[in-house]
Amino acid sequence: MNWYGWLSLGSQKQDNKDRDSGQRGALFLWSVVGTVIMSLMFCGYTWAQKSVVVLVDGNEKAVRTFSSTVGSLLEAQKISLLEKDEVIPAPETPLQEGMVVTLNRAVDFNLVVDGTTAPARTRGRTVGDILIEYGINLGPEDEVSPGREEPVVSGMQVQVARVSTVTEDSEVPINYETKKQYTVKLEEGTTRVAREGQDGTERQTWQVVYKDNKEVSRQLVSREIITPPVDREILVGSGMVVSRGGENIRYSDVRQMVASGYTYTGSNTASGVPPHYGVVAVDTAVVPFGTRLYVEGYGYATAMDRGGAIRGNRLDLFFESESEALSWGMRTVNVYFIK
Question: Tens of pLDDT along 160-189?
Fold first, then answer.
């Protein structure tokens, strides 16, 4: 082999050696780059993951998460938000290491206002808080149940009743009455209408209490007659009627009799009853016991006593005192025998 051949062979060996060295360097470089990338990825992973605490209605839970905001954290934890629920901090707040996320759940209840029931939610602590939250203004007579200071309980019913007291006027009829007037101008037992009746009118003022537009009580405050009623008058044939003291007295007989007066004697009457005003002593041969009389100047009387000096058309009228009996004296009067 000549010199040139040895030179070519030496050069080829050197090239192979250099090539092997380059390959080893490239492999080392890629190894270093891979290690750096892995380190960076690990650091990034560690940096992106955060430790936070989720507090739901007082129940605490520690969480490690890659979520970037409070809202995405709740979604990742499958915690749904309902109406009126409160999240602190707000859902759009960026999540930070060591942050405490608090969720206060609202309470479900039924709200009854103006007779209408609807489901509702609240974070209020008392019934009074609910009224403020829902903008319910109470009138001076309105009622709320339970009371304003009662605590809110899940599933409770809060009822507001609108109460109002109003004054109402109404006109009502006054029914007429039918009155009989006895007369001797008609045959006994026959009747004739002397005047037709007519109802009157009365204005009544009522105090009415309404609860949710339904009447619950009514009280009469005053009344005023606008038009008085006109009574119906019927004439009745009686044969014999006398009017005394505004009263028509039907009688079967009238006699003039001498009447005297007496008072307590300490004994009962001859009929056995104690003496009292309206008792008259008679001659039972002329006036039987139990006969009802109307004595002018005295009034109604019943024959329930007798006396030794009472004979014929004589009467002895009982008075409550001796002075009244003496004041009466003895006089002749018309005595009507009542039917």
Answer: 999 999 999 999 999 999 998 777 667 667
Give the containing element (helix H, strand E) for 5: helix 3-48
Domains of the chain: 50-104 (3.10.20.30), 107-161 (3.10.20.30), 165-235 (2.20.230.10), 240-338 (2.40.40.10)
Strands 232-237 and 191-195: antiparallel
> Residue 205: CB partners within 8 Å, gap ≥ 6?
167, 168, 169, 220, 221, 222, 223
What is the maximum alpha-carbon separation in the chain? 205
pTM: 0.46
Residues 210, 212, 214, CA angle at the centre, nearest 5°?
50
Backbone angles phi, psi at 188, to 5 degrees: -60, 130
If residue 278 lies in a helix (H) or strand (E), which one and from where to where? none
**Euclidean distance between the first and the last CA atom of the chain, given in angstroms as a whole number:** 186
Asked if 238 and 184 count as a contact pair (C-beta separation under 8 A), the reply is yes
pLDDT tens digits, residue range 5-28? 433 444 455 555 555 555 665 565
The enclosing H or E element of 265 equals none
